[in-house]
Amino acid sequence: MSQDKLIRKFDKQASIYEARRRQRTEREWREKLIRNAKGRVLEVAVGAGANFHYYPKGVDLTAVDFSPEMLNKAKTAAAEYGIRAEFILSDIESLSFPDESFDTVVSTLSLCGYEDPSIVLEAFQRWCKRDGQILLMEHGISSNPLIGGIQTLVNPLFKKVIGCHFNRDMVKILQQSKLKIEKIEHYMLGAVHLVWATPDKHN
């Protein structure tokens, strides 16, 4: 799928994402993860700002998304929650930050959308400070064979309609990355993962 087509797809979903943000979907998971953010924070694929409610006071946020409509919704959320943020309209592949720019890098439910998530994780590794943290909430193929089989069956539809790879082995992708996984928790029959990681600058 072309980048322009993918952007238009997410532009059309912006109101749905905003409604989910107001309903605080995935609240338990987001709160558990995002409350650990500190210092200078980079959040990629920020969407409609679903994580903003859970950030501790005083974080200095840089929020990135390639969808103009999503970014507009995120700006509204930031104003509602009193979040101080810089907003950047860009896809992850075009982003450029100096190495070790951020204390915390956040990505929630976004690795499913990239053609090559390993490249994105390498960027997180570079941009995160040596003593920083990388906080991820991602979904992938279930550890339950029956559910995983269904995910694989419907994956083409999800890619076409939503722009999401529904059956990626997210744990394997993370384990093959340069990140050092400090803690990982699995939910929804092993289809959702909360990850606390640090950059391994020796890799």
List keywords for this structure.
single chain, 203 residues, alpha/beta, Rossmann fold, 7-stranded mixed beta sheet, 7 strands, 38% helix
Write structural notes for this entry.
The chain is an alpha/beta fold and 203 residues long. It has a single domain, classed as Rossmann fold, CATH 3.40.50.150. It is built from six helices and seven strands. Strands 3-2-1-4-5-7-6 form a seven-stranded mixed β-sheet, with helices on both faces. Helix 1 (3-23) packs parallel to helix 3 (68-81). The N and C termini lie far apart (32 Å). The relative contact order is 0.15.
The biggest beta sheet reads: 7 strands, mixed
List unreliable stretches of 5+ residues: none
How far is it from the N-terminal to the C-terminal residue, by CA?
A: 32 Å
CATH superfamily: Vaccinia Virus protein VP39
Mean residue pLDDT: 92
Indicate the overall shape.
globular
CATH architecture heading: 3-Layer(aba) Sandwich
Widest sheet, order of strands: 3-2-1-4-5-7-6
Q: Specify the helix fraction band.
A: 25-40%
Give me the CATH fold name.
Rossmann fold
